[in-house]
Structure formats: C-alpha cells, structure tokens
Amino acid sequence: MATATTHSTGHSNGEVNYINEFKGLKSWLTSLDHKRIGLMYMISVLFFFLVGGIFAILLRLELFKPGAQFLTPDQYNQVMTYHGAIMVFMVIIPGIPAILGNFFLPIQIGAKDVAFPRLNLASWYIFMLGAFIAVATLFVGKVDTGWTFYTPYSIKTASAATMMVVAAFIMGMSSILTGLNFIVTVHKLRAPGMTMYRIPLFIWAIYSTAVLQILATPVLGITLMLLAMERTFGVGIFDPKLGGDPVLFQHFFWFYSHPAVYIMILPAMGVVSELIAAFSRKTIFGYTAIAYSSIGIAVVSFFVWGHHMFVSGQSEIAGIVFSFITMLVGVPTAIKMFNWLATLYKGNISFESPMLFALGFLFLFAIGGVTGIMLATIATDVHFHDTYFVVAHFHYVMVGGTLMALMGGFYYWFPKMFGKMYNETLARITFVLIFIGFNVTFFPQFILGAMGMPRRYFDYIPAYEYLNSISTVGSWLIASGFLLSLYVIVTGIRCGEKAPSNPWGAKTLEWQTSSPPPHMNFEVEPIVTAGPYEYK
Amino acid sequence: MSINSSDTNHSHSHDSHLAHHFKNAEHQFESAKQGIWLFMVTEILMFGGLFVGYSIFHAIYPKMFAEGASHLDWRLGFVNTLVLIFSSYTMAMSIHHLQKNEKSKAVLKLWLTVACGVIFMCIKAYEYSSKFHHGLFPGRYLDVAHVGAEAANLGMYYGFYFCMTGLHGIHVLIGMGLIVWLALRAQKGEFGENYFTPVEGVGIFWHIVDLIWIFLFPLLYLVG
Ligand code: HEM
Ligand SMILES: [Cu+2]
User: Fold this and answer.
1) Residue A329 and residue A322: Cα distance in Å, rounded?
2) Longest dimension (CA), chain A
3) What's this model's pTM, rounded to 2 decimal places?
4) Whose CA is closest to A53, among A526, A531, A514, A482?
5) Which of A112, A304, B3, B44 fits as disulfide partner to B21, beta carbons 3.0 to 4.6 Å?
6) What is the pLDDT of residues A135-190, one digit of tens each?
7) Which residue, among A253, A255, A256, A213, has the nearest Cα to A237 in the 3D structure?
C-alpha cells in the first residue's frame, strides 16, 4: 500500500511499544489501548477454548464405545450444553472480531484507536462478567438444555437455565458494543486517503459482522429475557399449556442465531482474504465483489432462519421459501470462493503456516458449505435433521472454517502483535495435526448421520461403534495439535527471534509500522495513496 | 504513503475533552452521535421483539387481550404520555440553552426533565401497586379468582404488560440517573457551546425512550 518506513522516525527505534510502554497488571486491566484489549480478549478466549475443548474430549470419550462409559445421561447433557455454549458464546463469536478485529481494525485503517476506547474496555469487562456468570452456573445447578435453550424443555428443567440465559444476554451486550464501536471507527477514523474502497477486505468483513451484531443480537437478548420471564412467572408465551407457542421461541432464536453463524464465519472470510492476498503476492482478484458479498451475506442471512425448522410444523410454503432463500446464500459465498481461487491462480504462492491454514479453510469450508446445501434441501434435511450429519456440518463450518482462519490469522499477525517470530516448522506441524485430526474426527460423523445416528444422545447401538471410535481418536489428534500451537505461541512470545516490521512483505497498513506497534499505532499519521493489495 | 509530520504523541490540545484519536471537537461529536444512534437502533430492535410477540398473541387471543386492557386505566397512561412528551421538550431546551451558554436555564431544564421522570415513575408505581392489589400479576401468579378473569390465560397479557412497561421503566430510571449526572456537571459549568456531547447523547436516549412509550401507550391501554 505504501512505501515509507516509519520505524526509524521519532523516539522509537522499535524500543518503546504498546507492550512495554506501561508496566504492571493494573496498566493492562485499565488500558484503553485497543491492542492491549485485543490481547486481553485473546487470553480470555484461549482460556474458554481450553475449557470448551476439555468438555469436547469428555463427550468423545463417552462416545468411544456403546454403553455408558463414565458419564450418566444427565451429565452427558450437561457436558454437551457447556461444550456448545462455551464454544459458541465465548469462543467463536468473540474470537476473530474481539481479538484480531480489536487489534488490527484501527491499525489497518490508519487510526490511533477505536472510536470509543473506554467503551471498548467496558465491552471486555461486560464479556468477562457474562462469562463468569455462565461458568458460575456450574456450581449453582448445571444447565442441560443444549446451547439453543429450546422450549418447552428449557421452561421446565430445574437447572440454572435462567442464570445461563442472563449470562448469554450480558455477553450479547458486549458483542453489540464491540460492533457499534467498530462501525463508528470505520466510518469516522480512516486515515487521510483511506477511502472505503481502499480498506482491506478484513475490515469489510469485520464491518459487515458488526452490522449483524447490531441488528441481530438485540432480538436474541429479548428472546432470552422472555424465556427468563417464562421460567420465573410462567407467562405462557412459549408454554403450550398456557396457550403459548414453543415454536415461536425457535423463530425468535434462529432469527438471531442464523445471522450469528455469519457473525462467526464472516470475520474468518476476511482473514482468509488477507492471507491469500499476502501469500500469493498478487492483487486480490475481485476486491469489490468480495467486499460486497460480505454485505450480501449479511443481508440474506436475516431471511433464512426457517431452515432450522423444516420439521417443526411450520407451513410447507414457509419451508419451501426458506429453502430457496437459503440456497441464495450460496451465491455471495461462491463469489468469495471463486475470487480466492482466482487470486491463487498463477500467484507466487508460499506455503508458510498461515497460508496452510487459509488453504485448510478453503477445503474444509467447501465441505461444510456443500453439506449445508444438502441440509437446506427440505427432502434431505428431513432425513438428516438432528443426526450426526448436522453435527459434522456445523463443525466443518465453525471449526474448519472459523477456527482455521483464526489460527491462520494468529500466526500471520503474531510477529506484529508480539514483535517476535514463532517456530515455523512446529507451526506447520500444528496445521498438519489439526487438519488431519479434524477430518478423522468429523468426516465419519457425516456417515454416522446418514446412517441415522441421532445427535445429543449419550449412547448408541453397536452398529455405530466403529466410526465413533475413529472419531474419538481424531479428537485426540486435534487436541494435541492445539496444545502444540499453544506451545508454539508461548515459546514464540518468550524466546522467539525479533520480528522485522514486515516479515511477509505484505502491503496493508499494519505492516508499515514497527513490530510491535507503538502506543498510538504509528509514529506519524499515514496518508494512503493506493489500494491495500498493490502487489505486482 | 507519504508522511505527514503531525505529532501523534500524547500532546493534548487546548480542548481538554478532545481525545487524542480525533481530529477536532466536531469530529469527536459526530462520532459520539453516530455511536449513540447505533445504540438506539439496538434498543428499538430489542423492544421490537416484544412488539412482535405482543402482536402475534393479540391476533390469536383478541378477546383475552381486550379483557386485559379493560383493567388498565387509560387516563393514567395518557397523563404519563403527556408528561414524557413535555420532558422531551425540556430535554431539547436544555441543549438549546447550552448552545447559547445559558447555564442556569439549561440546568433548570435538566432538573425539570428529571422531575418529569419522577412523576412518570410515581404514576407507574401507583398503577403497578393497584394492579397487584387486584391480583393482576404476570403469568401464573395472576389471581384468577380474585380478578374474575374470563380468559384462562389472562396472565399472558399481564406478562406482556409488566415486561414491556417494566423494561421501559428501567430505561426511564437509567435515563433519570444520567440526567441527574448531567445536571450536576452542567451546574459546575462543564458544558457550553463548545462541548455538550454527553447532553446530546443522553438527550437522544431520552427521546427514544419517550418514543417507545408513545408506541406502548396505545398498544397496551387503547387497543383492546
Ligand atoms: C476437538 C474438537 C471438538 C470435538 C471432538 C467436538 C465434539 C462435539 C460433540 C460430541 C458434540 C455433541 C453433538 C451432539 O450430540 O449433538 C458437540 C456439539 C457441539 N459442538 Fe463440538 N466438538 C469440538 C469442537 C468444537 C468447537 C471448536 C466448537 C465451536 C464452534 C464446537 C461447537 C459445538 C456446538 C455448538 C455443539 C452443539 C451443542 C448442542 O447441540 O447443544 N465444537 N461437539
Ligand atoms: Cu441457519
């Protein structure tokens, strides 16, 4: 994007940066610097990922063989609920926007900070409060509704569902505030010359996500509040015994939660756009098409929620309409896919670990997407509904998609965030472990689902044993891959080599400042004169 | 990229309210305003969920909703509507005075707005307590025998009633708290024609809360 090097100007010869400028725990917990807040999110989210991951391993261990292994059915339901809820509300939804978005959105548009730094810090505290309440339910009365809180069961269950719902509401508030902050930042704080068509594609993705966060999350909030009302006062809105409609809950819930799956995946697509451009050293193909398709996905995602309810008794016409609109989401998604492939074509590709994760994303997300089309087709969905086919599908999308991108983004921006290099060989091994482990774990689940194995059951008939055992072994591979990447990250931070300002030779603005960046991101205000991917 | 020599270090400019990442006061004001408007969108959407639920069940149980509304006193609701509209006016006037540096008038208008909030909440409290007195509780706590309810699920209407007015009432309370804080700061002379962003922001919030009431009032008290 630019030619100047700024790390040699002013007082900083790379010595004073956002990490070492202020010292002590308190300077972190009260910091208004978006970069520090991003790192605080990173630590929290990694922690919750570990907890959610332990629950996942427990689930798979229980399903290793038919019959009860070491959990009771009740405990299985609880473990499944916590795994799902933690992974969704505390890992995947905040993941990319709150960590990488917070850190890089202002830098990539040449701003000194987000529009509302105080609000940004408050968002982190609100998130932690919600997460704390959610975890505290473990000690109050364990929740067993599944992360979807479907009525009527969630009205009846004697667990701490009300508390969990309040926790989700609070985390939703944090998500709204983050989104709001990002939108205003993009509108108001772009550096001189940084027009909307010069912002990196990662920003377009985070921006579209922020719009979704603002429009969808309040609906989830009020739905959860109504559920809490229902549980405390027996209002009867969702309770068929009192004349209410449990399916209404599903409508409300998915009106948020379908857009929410794009809150999870759109940022990932943004990261992948950056990675593909940087590691094929080529101008990204179809910049505007990728940018607009993010907005397109955001818009369409509001009209497809009914595909979760094909068998709920909604009218046939509704089913057909929802099925059709769902297929439409494929269009902007395919636009992105083809543009990435076109960028790769004849690119000068280098297979550094971030790129491996980006390619892994393309592969796994394609499988997730194609199986999504199968689920969007009413006739096939009636067969696959609530089977392991669905479990495999959403893991391919959420883990294969979002998590791959998050890992790739982590490695890509690691030198900028910490000013150190990580061990590239080990990083590549983490990719191999996660990628292979992932497919070993979740591919058999497609077959299991097609064979009819239902989800959310703690036991199964012997006919399903073989594939389930394979799946469980795969989960150990994934786990070792993530543990190894934790090692790579920690050793990288502690004793990695010093990173140059621009180790990958990338063109976006964040690479024009020193690694790690100074407190205000740039020594001098950048003036932008070209688009973000001006490679030859 | 060419380099602009503007200093980005901590040097705080003449205006002590200007955060370092904004170009000037106007830039900061515009950003704050955009932020508060986006937040208002989320508020409206949140109430929107309640309105949708209300409309759906109103269509399914028109008689039950009519019975529920018949227990409400529309005159109290109407007075409250007037009170809130007036408070929106005083709120707007306080900004107007600040822009003309008329401090004491602005402070007075802010306290008047708070007073309106107090009146509103008193009337609400009276309404709530008389509802409770007659056994009109939400959901399963509704005292069917005492009320002599015809519809078996009259509690649902009161579930909506208390949920919608309660959520709105919480917003009024938050708004009042914020306006008290503004009034105290205005008293100290912290606002004037150059800086009144917080007043503007809280003002927008207050207007939206009023607006939501203007929808709640006919829906709950009149449509029946
Ligand atoms: C080692 C990796 C993982 C394994 C072995 C694993 C395993 C499982 C299993 C066995 C279930 C229960 C399925 C059912 O009975 O319906 C499940 C559910 C779920 N998982 Fe994972 N999972 C993993 C990672 C993740 C990640 C990273 C996410 C984050 C998005 C995630 C999100 C979910 C969700 C949302 C559910 C649904 C819970 C529910 O139905 O209430 N999983 N997972
Ligand atoms: Cu969906």
Assistant:
1) 11
2) 72
3) 0.91
4) A482
5) A112
6) 999 888 889 999 999 988 898 887 789 999 999 999 999 999 999 999 999 999 99
7) A253
Pocket test for ligand 1, best of A46, A395, A436, A472 (most atoms within 8 A of CB): A395
pLDDT for the residue numbered B151: 79
CB-CB under 8 Å, A237 with B46: no
Please name the amino acid found at residue A466.
Answer: Y
Cα(A337)–Cα(A340) distance, integer angstroms: 5
CB A266 within 8 A of CB A209: yes
CA dist B37 and A180 (Å) reads 10
Residues ≥6 apart with Cβ < 8 Å to A242: A234, A235, A236, B139, B140, B153, B155, B156
* Chain A contact set for B57 (CB, 8 A): 237, 244
How far apart CA A279 and CA A358 sit, in angstroms, is 10
- A178/A124 Cα distance (integer angstroms): 9
C-alpha A259/C-alpha A212 separation (Å) is 7
Report angle CA A91, B39, B55 to the nearest 5 degrees. Answer: 95
Question: Ligand 1 pocket test: which of A45, A47, A87, A476 has the largest number of ligand atoms within 8 Å of its C-beta?
Answer: A87
Nearest CB among B45, B56, B156 relative to A242 is that of B156
CA-nearest of A139, A128, A116, A143 to A45 is A128
> In terms of residues, how long is chain B?
224
- Partners of A387 in the β-ladder: A454
What is the rounded average pLDDT of the residues A518-531? 88
The CA A150 to ligand 1 mean position distance, Å, reads 17
Query: By the CB < 8 Å criterion, does B59 face chain A?
Result: no
For chain A, the straight-line distance linking the first and the last C-alpha, in angstroms and rounded, comes to: 12
Nearest CB to A236: which of B6, B35, B156?
B156
| Identity at B64, one-letter amino acid code | M
Residue whose pair of structure tokens reads 């606002």 in the numeric block:
B191
> Residue A7 — very low, low, confident or very high, per pLDDT cuts 50/70/90?
very low
CB A6 within 8 A of CB B3: yes
At B11-59, the pLDDT tens digits run 333 467 888 888 888 899 999 999 999 999 999 999 999 999 999 999 9
Distance, CA of A60 to CA of A448 (rounded, Å)? 14
**Cα A354 from Cα A462, distance rounded (Å):** 41
Q: 3-state class of A389 per DSSP?
A: helix
* A222 contacts on B by Cβ (under 8 Å): 46-50
| Assigned token pair, A329 | 């989401």
* A114, closest residue in chain B (CA to CA): B21
> In this structure, what DSSP letter does residue B222 have?
I
State the complex-level ipTM. 0.89
Residue A34's nearest CA partner among A128, A99, A94, A126 is: A99
Mutation site, A226, A237, A249, A250, interface B, largest B CB count within 10 A: A237
DSSP H/E element including B83: helix B74-99
Residues 6+ apart with CB under 8 A from B44: B208, B212
For residue A315 the two structure tokens come to: 């009218």
